[in-house]
């Protein structure tokens, strides 16, 4: 099982210690559960972005329930691995993962987007335990992760930094400024994921602004590139394990995914980038994820 | 012959001082370290200096990540790029989460001179004062710049420090006390108050000197903290002098004049005028020529004071 060495006397997270034992089957069930949370909370909120949350369910599952070391009871534990959500509109899948990891009660998910809630429409590090970065304006998460990674190096801390980007987000120029810098600084403690679901708000990514050949681009910027089926938990785990062995350069995992994954009528449907199912559709979605 | 020093030179020296006493201090620059003077720090503390190349937006978000990991991050570039090009990064990566990043922007205003409009930051104060949670400092000379840098490092949260390119007269004496959020009365006076910031404090002082020869006593206030604004000093000046002129090396919209006017309007309306750039981009020229050409000199302040006195 992939796991970074725990340094000194720092306490191992009770929740991650327990959850690290999840089998592949249990992780599959967890991904399904996270999807159900996403649909339920967005249904209750009446607005939000389901498509890009559903496509990232396995990525978040493998990170929070296998790969990362953290302590939900102490969100600021200095040795924790960091997850940075650069595509901030996928906040619901992050909230679902954080709730199931014990950062806050699962019941709180129903407060999403409501006045007074700790769960804002886009990720907010000032309010939500476990949220590392305020995001929602695309393109900034990888740069932020570089700062966290440089601090880890200065402080000789072994923690790792995982950052999730959207494929549409790769149209932002800052992503490539950061890609260049992470390789320049030889940050092998950074692993980026691109949730490559092929859709963005206005349509298909290749029609809106083509980002291909995406792997070649990252490679040319000096990154070690993995390409995986982003819904295959075993493939994702394997890539993460291999990434631990990559030295002197950062790793990117291009995760080929399906937007709206898990709900038949939302899959590959651009309408559901920023639309929430309601009424019968909501029931149908939850039934499919039951 | 008055002593002269640029505020950026003072910054470079203060950073080295900080680096020696505070190992949390890290510094970032975007290929301008020999102009912003962070090169001094880079030379002495290469491990804690991050050269980001020509990618200012990336630099600001990296600074945020360093700050989120317990560092006191100083990020420097020219003011046009710091505030203008990186506004969204300052907003989302730094201001909203209130991270401990100090943006130290040099080459502000039209006193940059010959480089011309592309390099004249004349909107930055308006932009930076608009960001909730940011502290905005505009030192008047090298002495105050050094003190402001030390003060910024000792406080938690985002700070913007506006510095200049040219050497400027040292007007703060050795025992000058700088406190964030406190205006400093540089010269007493009961007839009118000149509230100035940055290099305009020296211009204000010269204007007050000239007017004093005619028996007009102007209070000169150095508003080196633009945010949070020292409202008490402004209201006191309005009440005790009955006329106010503001002076800044910045556009009049959203700058010091606007901010002082809001305080005066709510608390103690008195005749006011503002010395600032009037909705234009300046051209290339020598700093002192530009200050004359665009109405930002001691002579213009003097005229403005006469104007408000007539309306008293």
CATH superfamily of the largest domain in chain B: Thiamin diphosphate (ThDP)-binding fold, Pyr/PP domains
Which fold name is given in CATH as the topology of the largest domain in chain B?
Rossmann fold
Shape of chain A: globular
Oligomeric state as shown: heterodimer
Low-confidence stretches of chain A: 1-14
Note the gap between the termini of chain A.
Answer: 29 Å
Radius of gyration of chain B: 19 Å
Number of domains of chain A: 1
What is the spatial order of strands in the main beta sheet of chain A? 1-2-3-7-6
Give the SSE string of chain B: EHEHHEHEHHEHEHEEEEHEEHEHEHH
- The total beta strand count of chain B reads 14
- The percent range for strand residues of chain A is 5-15%
* Main structural class of chain A: alpha/beta
Q: What's the architecture of the largest domain in chain B in CATH terms?
A: 3-Layer(aba) Sandwich
The largest β sheet of chain B comes out as: 7 strands, mixed
Q: How large is the count of helical segments of chain A?
A: 11
- Overall spatial form of chain B: globular
Q: How many strands in all of chain A?
A: 7
The low-confidence runs of chain B, each spanning 5 or more residues with pLDDT under 50, are: none
**In CATH, what is the class of chain A?**
Alpha Beta
Counted by DSSP, the helix tally of chain B is: 13
